[in-house]
Predict the structure.
Amino acid sequence: MARTVGSNGVRTAQAIRQAGVKLIYQHGYEAMSLRQLAAEVGLQSGSLYKYFENKQSLLFDIVRDHMDDLMAKADEALAGLTDPMDRLKAYVGFHLRYHMTRKAHVFIANMEIRSLEDEHRGEVVAMRRRYEGLLDTILRDGAAQGAFKVVDPRVSTYAIISMLTGICMWYRPEGRLSQDELVAIYTDLVTAGVAEPEAGLAEGQARAEAQRARA
Amino acid sequence: MARTVGSNGVRTAQAIRQAGVKLIYQHGYEAMSLRQLAAEVGLQSGSLYKYFENKQSLLFDIVRDHMDDLMAKADEALAGLTDPMDRLKAYVGFHLRYHMTRKAHVFIANMEIRSLEDEHRGEVVAMRRRYEGLLDTILRDGAAQGAFKVVDPRVSTYAIISMLTGICMWYRPEGRLSQDELVAIYTDLVTAGVAEPEAGLAEGQARAEAQRARA
DNA sequence: TACGGAAACAATCGAACGTTCTTTTTCTGT
DNA sequence: ACAGAAAAAGAACGTTCGATTGTTTCCGTA
Protein backbone atom coordinates (compact mmCIF):
# COMPACT_ATOMS: atom_id res chain seq x y z
CA MET A 1 0.00 0.00 0.00
CA ALA A 2 0.98 3.57 -0.42
CA ARG A 3 -1.36 6.47 -0.83
CA THR A 4 -4.73 5.30 0.47
CA VAL A 5 -8.09 5.87 -1.21
CA GLY A 6 -9.85 9.05 -0.20
CA SER A 7 -6.78 10.41 1.52
CA ASN A 8 -6.66 14.16 1.86
CA GLY A 9 -3.80 16.21 3.19
CA VAL A 10 -5.82 18.89 4.90
CA ARG A 11 -8.07 16.43 6.65
CA THR A 12 -5.14 14.32 7.79
CA ALA A 13 -3.36 17.39 9.11
CA GLN A 14 -6.38 18.29 11.20
CA ALA A 15 -6.73 14.74 12.44
CA ILE A 16 -3.09 14.66 13.49
CA ARG A 17 -3.40 17.91 15.37
CA GLN A 18 -6.54 16.76 17.12
CA ALA A 19 -5.14 13.36 18.03
CA GLY A 20 -1.93 15.03 19.18
CA VAL A 21 -3.83 17.24 21.62
CA LYS A 22 -5.74 14.26 22.93
CA LEU A 23 -2.73 12.02 23.42
CA ILE A 24 -0.48 14.70 24.90
CA TYR A 25 -3.27 15.58 27.31
CA GLN A 26 -3.75 11.96 28.29
CA HIS A 27 -0.17 10.78 28.52
CA GLY A 28 2.03 13.83 28.40
CA TYR A 29 4.25 14.96 25.57
CA GLU A 30 7.24 12.80 26.41
CA ALA A 31 5.12 9.75 27.02
CA MET A 32 3.26 10.04 23.74
CA SER A 33 5.06 8.16 21.00
CA LEU A 34 4.75 9.02 17.36
CA ARG A 35 3.76 5.45 16.63
CA GLN A 36 0.88 5.87 19.03
CA LEU A 37 -0.10 9.11 17.37
CA ALA A 38 0.16 7.57 13.93
CA ALA A 39 -2.02 4.63 14.94
CA GLU A 40 -4.66 7.00 16.32
CA VAL A 41 -4.85 8.74 12.96
CA GLY A 42 -4.49 5.56 10.93
CA LEU A 43 -1.01 6.07 9.52
CA GLN A 44 2.50 4.71 9.80
CA SER A 45 4.72 6.75 12.02
CA GLY A 46 7.03 7.81 9.21
CA SER A 47 4.15 9.36 7.33
CA LEU A 48 3.66 11.92 10.07
CA TYR A 49 6.74 13.74 8.88
CA LYS A 50 4.81 15.01 5.90
CA TYR A 51 2.89 17.11 8.42
CA PHE A 52 5.48 18.38 10.86
CA GLU A 53 9.18 18.86 11.02
CA ASN A 54 9.60 16.85 14.21
CA LYS A 55 7.84 15.96 17.42
CA GLN A 56 8.88 19.16 19.14
CA SER A 57 7.37 21.40 16.50
CA LEU A 58 4.08 19.56 16.78
CA LEU A 59 3.96 20.50 20.45
CA PHE A 60 5.00 24.06 19.80
CA ASP A 61 2.41 24.52 17.07
CA ILE A 62 -0.32 23.29 19.38
CA VAL A 63 0.74 25.58 22.20
CA ARG A 64 1.34 28.65 20.05
CA ASP A 65 -1.98 28.39 18.26
CA HIS A 66 -3.72 27.94 21.58
CA MET A 67 -2.12 31.01 23.07
CA ASP A 68 -2.95 33.10 20.03
CA ASP A 69 -6.55 32.00 20.24
CA LEU A 70 -6.74 32.66 23.97
CA MET A 71 -5.37 36.16 23.59
CA ALA A 72 -7.63 37.05 20.69
CA LYS A 73 -10.76 35.80 22.41
CA ALA A 74 -9.84 37.61 25.62
CA ASP A 75 -9.47 40.89 23.77
CA GLU A 76 -12.84 40.23 22.23
CA ALA A 77 -14.45 39.56 25.60
CA LEU A 78 -13.14 42.80 27.05
CA ALA A 79 -13.84 44.97 24.01
CA GLY A 80 -15.99 47.99 24.74
CA LEU A 81 -15.79 47.66 28.53
CA THR A 82 -14.08 50.46 30.44
CA ASP A 83 -15.18 50.16 34.06
CA PRO A 84 -12.63 48.02 35.96
CA MET A 85 -15.29 45.99 37.77
CA ASP A 86 -17.05 45.27 34.50
CA ARG A 87 -13.78 44.29 32.92
CA LEU A 88 -12.86 42.10 35.88
CA LYS A 89 -16.14 40.22 35.69
CA ALA A 90 -15.81 39.83 31.95
CA TYR A 91 -12.30 38.51 32.37
CA VAL A 92 -13.32 36.00 35.02
CA GLY A 93 -16.29 34.79 33.00
CA PHE A 94 -14.31 34.51 29.81
CA HIS A 95 -11.37 32.77 31.39
CA LEU A 96 -13.56 30.21 33.13
CA ARG A 97 -15.68 29.38 30.11
CA TYR A 98 -12.68 29.15 27.88
CA HIS A 99 -10.90 26.83 30.27
CA MET A 100 -13.97 24.71 30.83
CA THR A 101 -14.37 24.03 27.12
CA ARG A 102 -10.74 23.55 26.22
CA LYS A 103 -9.31 21.55 29.07
CA ALA A 104 -6.87 19.61 26.96
CA HIS A 105 -5.36 22.61 25.20
CA VAL A 106 -5.08 24.56 28.42
CA PHE A 107 -3.52 21.68 30.26
CA ILE A 108 -0.93 21.22 27.56
CA ALA A 109 -0.12 24.91 27.33
CA ASN A 110 0.39 25.09 31.08
CA MET A 111 2.07 21.80 31.78
CA GLU A 112 4.21 21.02 28.80
CA ILE A 113 6.11 24.26 28.75
CA ARG A 114 9.03 22.45 30.29
CA SER A 115 9.08 20.09 27.33
CA LEU A 116 9.64 22.97 24.92
CA GLU A 117 13.11 23.83 23.75
CA ASP A 118 14.49 27.06 25.14
CA GLU A 119 13.62 29.27 22.20
CA HIS A 120 10.08 27.99 21.91
CA ARG A 121 9.55 28.21 25.62
CA GLY A 122 10.63 31.81 25.58
CA GLU A 123 7.99 32.67 23.03
CA VAL A 124 5.26 30.94 24.97
CA VAL A 125 6.25 32.52 28.26
CA ALA A 126 6.13 35.93 26.60
CA MET A 127 2.65 35.22 25.30
CA ARG A 128 1.47 34.14 28.69
CA ARG A 129 2.93 37.22 30.26
CA ARG A 130 0.95 39.32 27.85
CA TYR A 131 -2.23 37.48 28.77
CA GLU A 132 -1.58 37.92 32.48
CA GLY A 133 -0.96 41.59 31.78
CA LEU A 134 -4.61 42.01 30.92
CA LEU A 135 -5.73 41.15 34.44
CA ASP A 136 -2.84 43.00 36.01
CA THR A 137 -3.90 46.18 34.24
CA ILE A 138 -7.51 45.73 35.24
CA LEU A 139 -6.54 45.41 38.89
CA ARG A 140 -4.23 48.42 38.75
CA ASP A 141 -6.88 50.56 37.08
CA GLY A 142 -9.48 49.48 39.60
CA ALA A 143 -7.17 50.25 42.49
CA ALA A 144 -6.32 53.65 41.03
CA GLN A 145 -9.99 54.49 40.80
CA GLY A 146 -10.63 53.32 44.34
CA ALA A 147 -12.88 50.46 43.32
CA PHE A 148 -10.43 47.72 44.26
CA LYS A 149 -8.29 47.12 47.28
CA VAL A 150 -5.27 45.41 45.84
CA VAL A 151 -2.10 45.30 47.86
CA ASP A 152 -0.02 43.83 45.06
CA PRO A 153 -1.52 43.54 41.59
CA ARG A 154 1.16 41.16 40.41
CA VAL A 155 0.49 38.66 43.18
CA SER A 156 -3.25 39.06 42.93
CA THR A 157 -3.04 38.39 39.24
CA TYR A 158 -1.17 35.15 39.80
CA ALA A 159 -3.52 34.15 42.58
CA ILE A 160 -6.69 34.81 40.61
CA ILE A 161 -5.47 33.18 37.43
CA SER A 162 -4.36 30.11 39.33
CA MET A 163 -7.72 29.88 40.98
CA LEU A 164 -9.63 30.20 37.74
CA THR A 165 -7.41 27.93 35.68
CA GLY A 166 -7.67 25.26 38.32
CA ILE A 167 -11.20 24.60 37.20
CA CYS A 168 -9.96 22.52 34.31
CA MET A 169 -8.55 20.02 36.80
CA TRP A 170 -11.98 18.86 37.89
CA TYR A 171 -14.73 20.38 35.73
CA ARG A 172 -16.89 17.91 33.85
CA PRO A 173 -19.67 19.05 31.49
CA GLU A 174 -22.04 16.51 33.01
CA GLY A 175 -21.21 17.65 36.53
CA ARG A 176 -23.50 18.88 39.27
CA LEU A 177 -23.23 22.58 38.46
CA SER A 178 -23.77 24.41 35.18
CA GLN A 179 -21.22 26.68 33.61
CA ASP A 180 -23.29 29.71 34.56
CA GLU A 181 -23.51 28.61 38.17
CA LEU A 182 -19.79 28.06 38.36
CA VAL A 183 -19.03 31.41 36.77
CA ALA A 184 -21.30 33.06 39.32
CA ILE A 185 -19.57 31.37 42.25
CA TYR A 186 -16.08 32.23 41.06
CA THR A 187 -17.05 35.76 40.14
CA ASP A 188 -18.40 36.17 43.64
CA LEU A 189 -15.18 34.91 45.17
CA VAL A 190 -12.95 37.10 43.03
CA THR A 191 -14.89 40.34 43.28
CA ALA A 192 -15.37 39.93 47.02
CA GLY A 193 -11.68 39.28 47.34
CA VAL A 194 -10.49 42.42 45.60
CA ALA A 195 -13.33 44.91 46.00
CA GLU A 196 -12.82 47.91 48.23
CA PRO A 197 -15.41 47.38 50.98
CA GLU A 198 -16.11 51.07 51.28
CA ALA A 199 -16.33 51.58 47.53
CA GLY A 200 -20.02 52.13 46.99
CA LEU A 201 -21.98 48.93 46.73
CA ALA A 202 -19.37 47.15 44.70
CA GLU A 203 -19.12 44.09 46.84
CA GLY A 204 -22.73 43.79 47.91
CA GLN A 205 -23.64 44.29 44.32
CA ALA A 206 -21.36 41.49 43.22
CA ARG A 207 -22.84 39.11 45.74
CA ALA A 208 -26.36 40.06 44.80
CA GLU A 209 -25.65 39.56 41.15
CA ALA A 210 -24.06 36.22 41.80
CA GLN A 211 -27.09 35.27 43.84
CA ARG A 212 -29.38 36.25 41.01
CA ALA A 213 -27.41 34.29 38.45
CA ARG A 214 -27.73 31.19 40.55
CA ALA A 215 -31.51 31.55 40.85
CA MET B 1 35.63 -1.13 39.95
CA ALA B 2 32.87 -2.37 42.12
CA ARG B 3 32.01 -1.17 45.57
CA THR B 4 33.50 2.29 45.96
CA VAL B 5 35.39 3.60 48.95
CA GLY B 6 33.26 5.24 51.57
CA SER B 7 30.04 3.99 50.03
CA ASN B 8 27.11 3.78 52.38
CA GLY B 9 23.67 2.37 51.66
CA VAL B 10 21.64 4.78 53.74
CA ARG B 11 23.36 7.83 52.36
CA THR B 12 23.01 6.61 48.79
CA ALA B 13 19.33 5.90 49.29
CA GLN B 14 18.77 9.45 50.45
CA ALA B 15 20.79 10.85 47.58
CA ILE B 16 18.76 8.86 45.08
CA ARG B 17 15.50 10.07 46.53
CA GLN B 18 16.67 13.67 46.51
CA ALA B 19 18.04 13.52 42.99
CA GLY B 20 14.87 11.77 41.87
CA VAL B 21 12.73 14.62 43.15
CA LYS B 22 14.95 17.15 41.48
CA LEU B 23 15.03 15.44 38.10
CA ILE B 24 11.35 14.55 38.00
CA TYR B 25 10.55 18.13 38.88
CA GLN B 26 12.83 19.45 36.15
CA HIS B 27 12.07 17.06 33.34
CA GLY B 28 9.01 15.11 34.30
CA TYR B 29 8.80 11.49 35.32
CA GLU B 30 8.66 10.02 31.83
CA ALA B 31 11.40 12.24 30.57
CA MET B 32 13.78 11.40 33.37
CA SER B 33 15.89 8.39 32.51
CA LEU B 34 17.40 6.13 35.09
CA ARG B 35 20.78 6.66 33.53
CA GLN B 36 20.36 10.38 34.13
CA LEU B 37 19.35 9.73 37.72
CA ALA B 38 22.27 7.36 38.24
CA ALA B 39 24.71 9.91 36.85
CA GLU B 40 23.35 12.57 39.20
CA VAL B 41 24.04 10.32 42.17
CA GLY B 42 27.31 8.99 40.78
CA LEU B 43 26.27 5.42 40.05
CA GLN B 44 25.65 3.13 37.13
CA SER B 45 22.00 2.77 36.21
CA GLY B 46 21.86 -0.90 37.11
CA SER B 47 22.99 -0.18 40.64
CA LEU B 48 19.85 1.81 41.32
CA TYR B 49 17.91 -1.40 41.58
CA LYS B 50 19.45 -2.06 44.96
CA TYR B 51 17.30 0.84 46.15
CA PHE B 52 13.95 0.43 44.41
CA GLU B 53 11.96 -2.24 42.69
CA ASN B 54 11.49 -0.23 39.52
CA LYS B 55 11.10 3.29 38.21
CA GLN B 56 7.40 3.41 38.96
CA SER B 57 7.83 2.58 42.62
CA LEU B 58 10.39 5.36 42.98
CA LEU B 59 7.74 7.83 41.84
CA PHE B 60 5.09 6.33 44.05
CA ASP B 61 7.32 6.36 47.11
CA ILE B 62 8.09 10.02 46.57
CA VAL B 63 4.45 10.96 46.15
CA ARG B 64 3.13 8.84 49.01
CA ASP B 65 5.69 10.10 51.49
CA HIS B 66 4.96 13.66 50.45
CA MET B 67 1.23 13.24 50.92
CA ASP B 68 1.70 11.64 54.33
CA ASP B 69 3.90 14.51 55.38
CA LEU B 70 1.50 17.13 54.06
CA MET B 71 -1.44 15.62 55.90
CA ALA B 72 0.43 15.22 59.16
CA LYS B 73 1.73 18.79 59.13
CA ALA B 74 -1.70 20.15 58.24
CA ASP B 75 -3.26 18.39 61.20
CA GLU B 76 -0.53 19.85 63.33
CA ALA B 77 -1.15 23.37 62.05
CA LEU B 78 -4.85 23.16 62.80
CA ALA B 79 -4.51 21.47 66.18
CA GLY B 80 -6.20 23.31 69.00
CA LEU B 81 -8.07 25.76 66.78
CA THR B 82 -11.84 25.62 66.79
CA ASP B 83 -13.09 28.90 65.35
CA PRO B 84 -13.65 28.48 61.60
CA MET B 85 -12.00 31.79 60.73
CA ASP B 86 -8.96 30.90 62.81
CA ARG B 87 -8.80 27.51 61.20
CA LEU B 88 -9.18 29.00 57.74
CA LYS B 89 -6.30 31.40 58.30
CA ALA B 90 -4.16 28.66 59.74
CA TYR B 91 -4.93 26.47 56.76
CA VAL B 92 -4.08 29.18 54.27
CA GLY B 93 -0.87 30.07 56.03
CA PHE B 94 0.21 26.47 56.40
CA HIS B 95 -0.61 25.52 52.84
CA LEU B 96 1.26 28.49 51.40
CA ARG B 97 4.38 28.07 53.48
CA TYR B 98 4.46 24.36 52.85
CA HIS B 99 4.12 24.86 49.12
CA MET B 100 6.67 27.63 49.03
CA THR B 101 9.31 25.48 50.66
CA ARG B 102 8.60 22.24 48.83
CA LYS B 103 7.89 23.28 45.30
CA ALA B 104 9.38 20.21 43.70
CA HIS B 105 7.54 17.69 45.85
CA VAL B 106 4.26 19.51 45.41
CA PHE B 107 4.68 19.82 41.70
CA ILE B 108 5.39 16.13 41.37
CA ALA B 109 2.48 15.09 43.56
CA ASN B 110 0.11 17.23 41.54
CA MET B 111 1.40 16.72 38.04
CA GLU B 112 2.69 13.20 37.87
CA ILE B 113 -0.44 11.50 39.09
CA ARG B 114 -1.18 10.53 35.55
CA SER B 115 2.12 8.69 35.39
CA LEU B 116 1.13 6.45 38.28
CA GLU B 117 -0.32 3.03 37.63
CA ASP B 118 -3.99 2.69 38.41
CA GLU B 119 -3.64 1.20 41.85
CA HIS B 120 -1.06 3.72 43.00
CA ARG B 121 -3.03 6.58 41.55
CA GLY B 122 -6.10 5.49 43.46
CA GLU B 123 -4.22 5.67 46.72
CA VAL B 124 -2.86 9.12 46.00
CA VAL B 125 -6.21 10.49 44.90
CA ALA B 126 -7.76 9.23 48.11
CA MET B 127 -5.06 10.95 50.14
CA ARG B 128 -5.61 14.18 48.30
CA ARG B 129 -9.32 13.97 48.84
CA ARG B 130 -8.72 13.65 52.54
CA TYR B 131 -6.53 16.74 52.52
CA GLU B 132 -9.11 18.73 50.59
CA GLY B 133 -11.69 17.55 53.09
CA LEU B 134 -9.98 19.61 55.75
CA LEU B 135 -10.76 22.88 54.01
CA ASP B 136 -14.17 21.70 52.93
CA THR B 137 -15.10 21.05 56.54
CA ILE B 138 -13.78 24.40 57.66
CA LEU B 139 -15.90 26.19 55.08
CA ARG B 140 -19.02 24.21 55.98
CA ASP B 141 -18.56 24.85 59.68
CA GLY B 142 -18.00 28.55 59.07
CA ALA B 143 -21.09 28.77 56.90
CA ALA B 144 -23.17 26.92 59.49
CA GLN B 145 -22.06 29.39 62.15
CA GLY B 146 -22.84 32.36 59.93
CA ALA B 147 -19.24 33.50 59.69
CA PHE B 148 -18.79 32.53 56.04
CA LYS B 149 -20.88 33.06 53.00
CA VAL B 150 -20.14 29.99 50.94
CA VAL B 151 -22.50 29.06 48.15
CA ASP B 152 -20.83 25.74 47.44
CA PRO B 153 -18.12 24.49 49.80
CA ARG B 154 -16.91 21.89 47.32
CA VAL B 155 -16.27 24.46 44.59
CA SER B 156 -14.84 27.00 46.99
CA THR B 157 -12.46 24.37 48.29
CA TYR B 158 -11.20 23.61 44.81
CA ALA B 159 -10.95 27.30 43.99
CA ILE B 160 -9.03 28.22 47.11
CA ILE B 161 -6.66 25.29 46.95
CA SER B 162 -5.91 25.98 43.29
CA MET B 163 -5.20 29.58 44.10
CA LEU B 164 -2.88 28.75 46.97
CA THR B 165 -1.08 25.90 45.29
CA GLY B 166 -0.44 28.07 42.27
CA ILE B 167 2.15 29.93 44.26
CA CYS B 168 4.68 27.21 43.63
CA MET B 169 4.57 28.04 39.92
CA TRP B 170 6.31 31.35 40.42
CA TYR B 171 7.54 31.79 44.01
CA ARG B 172 11.27 32.26 44.43
CA PRO B 173 12.90 32.63 47.87
CA GLU B 174 14.95 35.56 46.62
CA GLY B 175 11.87 37.26 45.19
CA ARG B 176 10.48 40.70 45.86
CA LEU B 177 8.12 39.70 48.67
CA SER B 178 8.77 37.75 51.84
CA GLN B 179 6.86 34.65 52.84
CA ASP B 180 5.01 36.60 55.51
CA GLU B 181 3.98 39.28 53.05
CA LEU B 182 2.70 36.73 50.60
CA VAL B 183 0.79 34.87 53.28
CA ALA B 184 -0.81 38.13 54.32
CA ILE B 185 -1.89 38.98 50.79
CA TYR B 186 -3.36 35.56 50.12
CA THR B 187 -5.05 35.40 53.49
CA ASP B 188 -6.61 38.72 52.74
CA LEU B 189 -7.90 37.50 49.39
CA VAL B 190 -9.32 34.28 50.78
CA THR B 191 -10.97 35.65 53.89
CA ALA B 192 -12.46 38.57 51.99
CA GLY B 193 -13.74 36.12 49.42
CA VAL B 194 -15.61 33.85 51.79
CA ALA B 195 -16.41 36.02 54.80
CA GLU B 196 -20.01 36.97 55.47
CA PRO B 197 -19.96 40.77 55.11
CA GLU B 198 -22.50 41.24 57.88
CA ALA B 199 -20.76 38.83 60.21
CA GLY B 200 -19.26 41.10 62.81
CA LEU B 201 -15.97 42.63 61.78
CA ALA B 202 -14.69 39.45 60.26
CA GLU B 203 -13.71 40.91 56.96
CA GLY B 204 -12.48 44.28 58.12
CA GLN B 205 -10.56 42.46 60.78
CA ALA B 206 -8.91 40.23 58.25
CA ARG B 207 -7.85 43.16 56.14
CA ALA B 208 -6.55 45.03 59.13
CA GLU B 209 -4.56 42.03 60.28
CA ALA B 210 -3.14 41.54 56.83
CA GLN B 211 -2.19 45.19 56.77
CA ARG B 212 -0.44 44.85 60.10
CA ALA B 213 1.49 41.78 59.03
CA ARG B 214 2.82 43.65 56.05
CA ALA B 215 4.02 46.54 58.15
C1' DT C 1 -6.13 9.75 -20.61
C1' DA C 2 -1.67 10.61 -19.36
C1' DC C 3 1.19 12.91 -16.23
C1' DG C 4 3.07 15.33 -12.15
C1' DG C 5 2.51 16.09 -7.54
C1' DA C 6 0.49 14.60 -3.22
C1' DA C 7 -0.04 10.99 0.24
C1' DA C 8 1.18 7.08 2.45
C1' DC C 9 3.76 2.66 3.09
C1' DA C 10 7.60 -0.21 4.45
C1' DA C 11 11.94 -0.94 5.86
C1' DT C 12 15.50 0.62 8.45
C1' DC C 13 18.85 3.41 11.32
C1' DG C 14 21.37 4.42 15.58
C1' DA C 15 20.44 5.73 20.06
C1' DA C 16 18.33 5.33 24.30
C1' DC C 17 15.29 3.06 27.30
C1' DG C 18 14.21 0.01 31.73
C1' DT C 19 15.83 -3.97 33.55
C1' DT C 20 18.60 -8.21 34.81
C1' DC C 21 22.65 -10.60 35.99
C1' DT C 22 27.29 -11.58 37.14
C1' DT C 23 31.45 -9.98 39.02
C1' DT C 24 34.36 -7.21 41.82
C1' DT C 25 35.49 -4.43 45.57
C1' DT C 26 34.86 -2.59 50.14
C1' DC C 27 33.13 -2.80 54.66
C1' DT C 28 31.99 -5.02 59.10
C1' DG C 29 31.62 -8.21 62.88
C1' DT C 30 33.97 -11.76 65.22
C1' DA D 1 42.80 -11.97 60.08
C1' DC D 2 39.10 -13.66 57.86
C1' DA D 3 34.40 -14.73 56.25
C1' DG D 4 30.25 -13.03 54.87
C1' DA D 5 27.45 -9.16 53.81
C1' DA D 6 26.89 -4.87 51.51
C1' DA D 7 27.64 -1.76 47.64
C1' DA D 8 28.53 -0.80 43.24
C1' DA D 9 30.48 -1.79 38.50
C1' DG D 10 29.74 -3.21 34.09
C1' DA D 11 28.01 -5.84 30.42
C1' DA D 12 24.17 -7.35 28.20
C1' DC D 13 19.03 -8.09 27.16
C1' DG D 14 15.05 -7.10 24.25
C1' DT D 15 12.21 -3.00 23.22
C1' DT D 16 11.01 1.12 21.77
C1' DC D 17 12.02 5.58 20.38
C1' DG D 18 12.33 9.59 16.82
C1' DA D 19 13.75 10.08 12.42
C1' DT D 20 15.23 9.02 7.33
C1' DT D 21 14.73 7.17 2.92
C1' DG D 22 13.11 5.01 -1.27
C1' DT D 23 9.06 3.29 -3.28
C1' DT D 24 4.27 2.78 -4.42
C1' DT D 25 -0.29 4.33 -5.05
C1' DC D 26 -3.84 7.68 -5.68
C1' DC D 27 -5.68 12.11 -7.19
C1' DG D 28 -6.48 16.42 -9.77
C1' DT D 29 -5.90 18.50 -13.94
C1' DA D 30 -4.94 19.71 -18.54
